[in-house]
Write a structure and sequence with these properties.
The protein is mainly alpha-helical and 692 residues long. Helix content is 56%, strand content 6%. The longest helix has 29 residues.
Length: 692
């Protein structure tokens, strides 16, 4: 079993290392995990607390590329997120990986070295599914679970550049499996391991808190089944607990979780206390933010999570059902499970969840609870009143490994059913049903040779079923690479159907396709061209040093109008379109598009040098500057209600010819910290109220 797990992990790593350079930086990682990775390394190296408390745009970490290595992608960007808005354990691991594989060994680019953490996290899940799933459900089920996981387009794509959710999925899954072992078998080491993994998962992402009710429900199931089975016979007891009977367990499964009759499993208050202590120690050990002022750090963390976790955004929900008290259930997440999972996985998982046995192997209450709770809790938490979800299934990706494990069980159930229904040769050579209760009497004469063994027949059938189950996901993964996070199945009408439904994330919502767009510009852009990115420009700014020709200039709001040809590139995340982009698009046809399943993920527009290019840039620049200063402007108006009517009157008298006069009048009525941005603010407010 360990050998097969090693082979699958090695195969995954070989494919992943080959494909890793085709994936670029992502929206959230640029804002948080990449810079925090090196802030944490600098802190551990110097002990200077400043590296943990950089006040976003005021200080920029001084991170230099190693002189003897390939060019470093841009990390010297303002860190715009507090530490509690990031996955700091994944960030730390990415920093260590970059230091080792890029800085020291020089075997990877800087970007790939960061992303290698996600690849390794996926490898850990693959190994766990084969080892844990194979031990409890049979090797075939464990192997099928791992293969179904890595041929699921969304998980496959996230496994290359998601430093948030893939490491969390790995730690969450490992904790869940370790907790099952502790609850069913007991043992100090199992409880301690569960606690350590839980603490690490919590340091990666707050999602780990839902492991507590998940493990609590499993503990209740285990205690109930053990107490219920205590008066039974030893044989019945083994079957009731998801193991095999004492007579057949070691022979047919190697299942080591069946308890002795009359016990309550591995539960103990001592083990629970040990796991609790281990989780807290592990959490604090990898969270240096708590070391100097734990009370303040905890207060900021809890406050932020309470805010984002209880905000319902109905615009992002396909269906919302109002409940008393103004709260609501958002079905966005649950629907996206149906829309973004390959149909073969969904169908086989349903079979696996409904099955009571795999061939002759009973699936007792505990094992079925493992599957049901491992799927239901991560998905179910998105249905809690007031909870919100966006970006498809990314925020609760932890359900995926257990769903694939249930599908692996379903594949083996189908294989056994097909084998049981297939005709087998009788002693006389006639065909008969394998499931017939009456066996023919042997004919006189020489004894025929042995028929193919049942194990061999089931294995062959399982291989055929497995291939049939894997092909749809494999084809979808291949077709959508490297933009599999935009995959939708036929239940949603594909990506085109999802866009027609108005789903906001039915596109490249994380900006990975900018990596491909920059490659196109390198090959096709005119000399000394200017590049404008109106949607998430920080992603392109991060990639610019290693993915853009030296003569192509990425425009910032502090630049002047372009003097050469202008290229406007953006991902089609329409809810993030600025007004300037909406004004720019009518009547224009993209020069280049990245298309998936008939739907556009990214557009590039070529605007020849001249007034049109200058106007497009100026409108975008005015809006960026105006949006940056608008909160300060609105705050000042609220604090000075007597001056507000006068300012409003000045703005009402504005005409294009009176711009300079309007700005001069505003400067006499507004504080000095707004003066520099007033021309852009006036122009933007005028366009917002009276679009061209």
């Amino acid at each position: 079993m360990a050998g097969i797990a090693a082979v699958l992990v090695a195969a995954w790593l070989a494919v992943a290392l080959w494909l890793l350079p085709t994936y670029g930086p992502t929206w959230d990682c640029v804002l948080g995990e990449y810079p925090l990775a090196h802030n944490l390394l600098a802190f551990y190296g110097s002990g200077d607390q400043t590296w943990l408390d950089l006040p976003d745009e005021e200080q920029v970490p001084d991170i230099a590329a190693p002189a003897d290595g390939p060019p470093h992608f841009e990390l010297a960007l303002p860190r715009r997120r507090e530490w509690f808005q990031t996955s700091w354990l994944g960030a730390l691991a990415a920093g260590v990986s970059c230091h080792l594989f890029y800085g020291t060994l020089g075997v990877m680019s800087s970007l790939s070295a960061h992303h290698f953490v996600a690849v390794l996290s996926a490898a850990a899940v693959i190994a766990a599914l084969v080892m844990f799933g194979g031990r409890r459900f049979g090797l075939g089920a464990g192997v099928m679970a791992a293969l179904l996981l890595i041929t699921s387009p969304r998980f496959f794509a996230h496994a290359f550049n998601n430093l948030k959710d893939v490491p969390e999925t790995a730690l969450y899954t490992l904790t869940w499996f370790a907790g099952f072992a502790a609850l069913t078998r007991g043992g100090t080491m199992r409880w301690a391991t569960t606690g350590v993994l839980l603490g690490l998962a919590a340091a990666q992402k707050i999602n780990a808190v839902f492991l507590l009710p998940q493990l609590g429900l499993l503990a209740a199931v285990v205690c109930w089944t053990r107490q219920r089975a205590s008066p039974r016979t030893e044989e019945d007891d083994g079957e009731a607990h998801g193991g095999l009977s004492a007579k057949s367990s070691s022979a047919s499964a190697g299942h080591a979780d069946a308890p002795s009759s009359g016990t309550t499993g591995g539960w103990s208050w001592r083990g629970f206390a040990l796991a609790t202590l281990a989780s807290m120690l592990a959490y604090v050990a990898v969270s240096p933010m708590y070391w100097s002022d734990p009370a303040e750090a905890w207060s900021g963390y809890v406050g932020f999570m309470s805010m984002v976790g209880s905000t319902f955004t109905s615009e992002q929900s396909a269906v919302a059902t109002a409940l008393p008290g103004g709260s609501a259930i958002d079905t966005h997440g649950a629907l996206h499970v149906l829309w973004t999972t390959p149909l073969s996985v969904l169908a086989l998982a349903l079979v696996g969840l409904c099955a009571s046995r795999i061939g002759e192997r009973p699936l007792g209450i505990e094992l079925r609870a493992l599957l049901v709770l491992g799927i239901a809790v991560p998905i179910g938490r998105t249905l809690l009143p007031g909870m919100r979800n966006f970006d498809g299934v990314r925020h609760f990706l932890e359900f995926t490994p257990t769903l694939c494990l249930a599908a692996g069980v379903g594949a083996m159930v189908v294989a056994h059913w097909i084998k049981g229904r297939a005709p087998v040769p009788s002693a006389s050579g006639a065909q008969t049903e394998a499931s017939s209760s009456a066996a023919p009497s042997p004919a006189p004469g020489p004894t025929p040779g042995p028929a193919p063994g049942p194990a061999r027949g089931v294995t062959l059938t399982a291989v055929i079923v497995g291939i049939a189950a894997l092909v749809p996901g494999l084809l979808a993964t291949t077709r959508t690479h490297p933009n599999g996070i935009a995959y939708y199945n036929v239940l949603a009408g594909g990506l085109t159907g999802a866009q027609q439904r108005g789903l906001r994330e039915a596109t490249d919502y994380w900006g990975n396709s900018y990596w491909q767009g920059l490659a196109w510009l390198d090959e096709n852009a005119t000399e000394n061209a200017a590049l404008l990115v109106p949607v998430a420009p920080h992603i392109v700014a991060c990639a610019e040093p290693v993915r853009l020709r030296d003569d192509i200039h990425l425009l910032h709001d502090k630049n002047g109008p372009p003097r050469a040809d202008l290229y406007v590139m953006f991902v089609t995340r329409r809810d993030w379109y600025p007004t300037a982009l909406r004004d720019f698009l009518p009547g224009r046809r993209a020069t280049h598009r990245i298309v998936l399943d008939g739907a556009t993920l990214l557009e590039i527009h070529h605007v020849p040098a001249g007034p049109a290019a200058g106007d497009a840039f100026q409108r975008w620049r005015d809006e960026v500057v105006a949006r940056r200063v608008t909160p300060r402007f609105q705050t000042w108006l609220r604090q000075h209600p007597k001056q507000a009517p006068r300012v409003a009157g000045i703005l009402r008298r504005y005409t294009p010819e009176r711009l300079d006069q309007t700005v001069a009048e505003l400067r006499t009525n507004l504080p000095a910290n707004l003066h520099a941005a007033l021309p852009a603010l006036v122009l933007f407010m005028q366009r917002e109220s009276s679009p061209d």
